[in-house]
Amino acid sequence: MSDINSSMASFDFSTLGPDLIIDALQHIGLDVSSGLLALNSYENRVYQFSAYQGTAATAAKYVVKFYRPQRWSLAQLEEEHLFAFELAAADVPVVAPLLLADKSLHHYQGFYFAVFPSRGGRGLETDNEQHLAMLGRFLGRLHQVGAAQPFQYRPSFSIENQLLESQTILLDSGFIPNYLQASFTSSLQQVINLVSAQYKPKSLIRLHGDCHAGNLFYVDQGPFFVDLDDCRMGPAIQDLWMMLSGEQRQQRDTLELILEEYEQHCDFDPTELKLIEPLRAMRMVQYMAWLTKRWQDPAFPMNFPWFNTDKYWEQQCLVLKEQLFLLQQAPLSLVPQY
User: pTM (2 decimals)?
Assistant: First the structure.
């Protein structure tokens, strides 16, 4: 998910053609020997390829990521890479960018980009107890490193970043149909009011930030993330709650299984459970604003054809009302309630 800024401008990736990509890779010493395979990424542009490096006799597989300009600052991108290197040094399974030409972040023709080793794996199964236990160990180790020091430049999960800026984008967009504006605006404001009253984390640590099953891969040794594109400061529960689904009993059982391994490496504060629904609301509203903000990028109408229809905004009005109800319920508890 993207960082929501107040600007509605959308950078045009049309200049990022195959010739520019290959020239950029050659500029840092990679001799591309295969075609470029576009990988699934909406916010950035990501390609898999094979290339020779230096005097290597055989080609190796790599992945190059061209970052969306004007999204992150240079300091924020460098901080992401430093966090990846710190995790890798602690044997936390995150695929860190490669050092090529003595650096990991490169600049070419207006684009920042990084190259990663190509790693394959299976999707994480959130109903597999063994997978969840390994995920708990992994996240415990990741948060142990993440708590060691704060980010200086990456943003934090906050009411301002996730809700207020998103509210401005949504209400100024002109996308919400006239007949829904009053209902949508009222429900959104009620959500913001409740979340503002409830989201009061005691501590913030460096997080993956977008920890859901689609961003995880699994090999026999355990799960791993391919990058840290959305890393930021936030409460630890942010990297845990998206693995929970179903009724409260099922969510509690899943969380207890994860925490049994997680707490071998990192303490968990159970008072953070009350942050789950506020964080869910923040993600929900930010996602709407992200689609709104990126709609001028040709990749978005192609991949999200249902967005910006009357039906979509009708559904979002219902979703906001459902979330209002959840925000008013008792939070998830690790102690069964009878």
Answer: 0.91
